Structures are given as structure tokens and as C-alpha cells.
Amino acid sequence: MKKMRRAVVVVLDGTGAGWQPDAEKYGDVGANTLAHVIEQCHPNLPNLTEMGLLKTVGMHPDDEDEPFGCYGTMLERAAGKDTTTGHWEMAGLTLEKPFPTYPNGFPQSLIDEFERETGMGVIGNKVASGTAIIEELGAEHIRSGKLIVYTSADSVFQIAAHEAIVPPTELWHICRTARRLLKGEHNVGRVIARPFIGNPGAFVRTGNRRDFSVDPVGRTMLDVIKSEGMDVLGVGKIEDIFNHRGITQSNHAAGNDACADAMIDFLKKDHWRGLMFVNLVDTDSQYGHRRNPQGFAGALEAFDQRLPEILKLLGEDGLLIITADHGCDPTFTRHTDHTRERVPLLVWSLGIEEGIDLGERKTFADVSATVLEALGCKEKLDGTSFYGDIAL
């Protein structure tokens, strides 16, 4: 069975493929990010369609040719619907216990300790949309200099500050302080810096966001591939999600266009062998949470247009996997958070069979198992590889 020289895993952040059987626990029954975006906005996705995207949500027209890619869906086995849990499981590390969440805000004792350590006051401390809370509290923050602290349905401690009041580098330092404090029962998945600019009524978040994650609690495919002497390239916020562990080189590009450029730049370089792990965040952060299906559709179209060049540059010994880390249905009206959904699974290479239905996988960890087998790694992690089902 042919081994691959390179594997590229692309995460279309928040692009779910229909609510999971346990979605009722999360209040997410009825969510279906992909299907609803396609039904409402009719995006032009010729390349993703040929890879099998419509098959993953049961929308492939009967009169069209079968996909040339392999396709299926994956269920998330770990509890939760957040970025860290989804990416870690995809990388072969499935959490047994979910990260803590704070539907009523953080305990006052924790906020008091944070204020003592940073020497700065706090406003907010509640569950909120990131764009809504800076509109609500941005002017007060500018007047008082106090930090805007908020959370969501995910396990996140988010700190927003105007760049003219708290420069990004200072905000990142404050986030590192918070990360140090958030341990034990308050070991949240991510501390997120949310810098913004502008004036009241016209605040805009900037590309200086940084995520400060907990260190992975076990081995991931990044650790394995690096330890076996290969390269691990991170694009976008991948380095943050894995707390810089297991990565040999990173391009912390901000936004989908910049991340696609970084992918292509890496693919044009022939010296590396191993894994490139890419997160395309705009579908989630710019359009999913903001409940903007038309923008979501546009982001999918933009990525679709880049696919031919990506496929061409993969060559004969490259494997491409396109998937997601959770849902974020922009048509969902019960909340503005992530949605508990299965995710699409698209696989392509010149060295595999075409049009194989991979079915519904029991865990995101099947991505890791497949990548490790395709690259010829000796160490195995969680999940079941489907590489033997598709390799020529």
C-alpha cells in the first residue's frame, strides 16, 4: 500500500453537517450548518461538490456524476462543541471530561484574583456575543480603562480591549496571566485576546486575536509526526489550539484568504515531508456566530475557488482531508454559539480510489489514525484508519 509524503488537513471551522444524536443535550436539535447555508444561499461550489460535499448532507443531485473524492461524515465522541475539543479529537486525543463552562459568568473570587494579578479592573463577566459586548461596553472600557471579560457556551475566558487603550502585545501578556490563573477546576479550554479599534457605534475587531490554550493532555498526531522526524506545519490558529506543541513551523495567518495563501506557499516548497494542519476560521468567527448565512456561503465559495491550485500542488504523493471541528449554523435562532453537529469528511489524492463512501465515522479521531497510517508512522493513537479502504 502506497505511503504518502505529505498530508494536508483543512478545517472549515464551524461547518457542520447536521445535528448529532445527542444534540438535545446542547439545545441544538435541528441545526445543520451546511444544508441550511446551501438551501438558503445556493453557493456555487463546483470543486467541493465534485469532491463529495453535497453527499455529506444528502443533497447530491441524482442526475450529476458521482464525486471523484471520497466522502463521509464524522461524529464527535467527546462531550462539547468547542474548537479545542474538536481539533484535539481530530488529532487523536479524545477528552474524557469536558472543559468547564460558565453560563452565569466567572466566580467573583476568580475575577478578584485576575484583577489583583493584572492591576486592572473588569467589566462584563457574562455570556455574550463578542461583537455585541464591545458595542455595549466599548465606550465604558475607553472611559475607565477596565478590561471587558466575557465567555460563551464554550469553555473560553475572553478579554476584549481597544488597541488604543491596551496595545495588543500588552493584551497578550494579560491573557498569559489569565492562562496561568485558570487551573484546576477553572482550567478553561482557551483564553482569547479580542482586540478592537474604532469609535462607539463603529467598533471593529482586528486580526490581532490570539488564543492561549491549555497544553494537550496527551499525545496527538502532531507529537507523533514530529517525533518520527517529519515536519508539522500549522496554518492559522492551529499553533494556538495545540499550545505550540508538536509544530515545527507555523504561519499564524489571519483570515481565510491569508490562510489559503499560506497553504499554497507551503505546498510550493518541496523540502518538507509530513503534515500541514490548516484552520480556516472565517466561516465560524465572521459568519457563523454572527448568523450571516450569505457571508458563510461566500467564504465557502472563496475556498472552493482555491481548491484546484491546492489539488494540483499536492502532487502524486499528497493526501488532502477537508473537514470541520463542530457546527455553527448561521440560520440557528436559539443562540449564537456553536452547534453540536456531525462534520463533513472529504478526502482526495491521486493515489487513492475515487468516489468511496466512507460512511459515518464514530469519532473525529479517524482523521488522525488515517494520517498516521498514510505517512507510515509507527505510533498509533485513538481512532480507526480508513486509509486501507481508499489506498490503491
- The CATH topology of the largest domain: Alkaline Phosphatase, subunit A
* Helicity level: 25-40%
Beta-strand percentage range:
15-25%
Tally of alpha and pi helices = 13
- Spatial arrangement of strands, main beta sheet: 10-9-11-1-12-13-2-14
Query: SSE order, as H and E?
Result: EHHEHHEHEEHEEEHEHEHEHHEEEHH
- Reading off the top of the CATH hierarchy, the class of the largest domain is best stated as Alpha Beta
Radius of gyration: 20 Å
Query: Roughly what is the average pLDDT, rounded to an integer?
Result: 96
CATH homologous superfamily assignment of the largest domain: Alkaline Phosphatase, subunit A
Specify the structural class: alpha/beta
Q: How many discrete structural domains? A: 2
Distance between the termini: 7 Å
Outline the secondary-structure elements.
Blueprint: E1 6-12, H1 33-41, H2 46-51, E2 70-74, H3 83-90, H4 108-118, E3 122-127, H5 130-144, E4 147-151, E5 156-162, H6 168-181, E6 190-197, E7 204-205, E8 210-213, H7 221-227, E9 231-235, H8 238-241, E10 249-251, H9 256-268, E11 274-280, H10 282-288, H11 293-314, E12 318-323, E13 343-348, E14 357-361, H12 366-374, H13 387-390
Parallel strand pairs: 1-11, 1-12, 2-14, 3-4, 5-6, 9-10, 9-11
Antiparallel strand pairs: 2-13, 4-5, 6-7, 6-8, 12-13
Helix pairs in contact: 1-11, 4-6, 9-11, 10-11
Folded structure, characterized:
With 392 residues, this protein is of the alpha/beta class. The chain has two domains: 6-97 and 214-390, 3-Layer(aba) Sandwich (Alkaline Phosphatase, subunit A); 108-212, Phosphopentomutase (Alpha-Beta Plaits, 2-Layer Sandwich). Helices cover 33% and strands 19% of the residues. It has helices at residues 33-41, 46-51, 83-90, 108-118, 130-144, 168-181, 221-227, 238-241, 256-268, 282-288, 293-314, 366-374, 387-390, and strands at 6-12, 70-74, 122-127, 147-151, 156-162, 190-197, 204-205, 210-213, 231-235, 249-251, 274-280, 318-323, 343-348, 357-361. A hairpin with a 4-residue loop joins strand 4 and strand 5 (156-162). The N and C termini lie close together (7 Å).
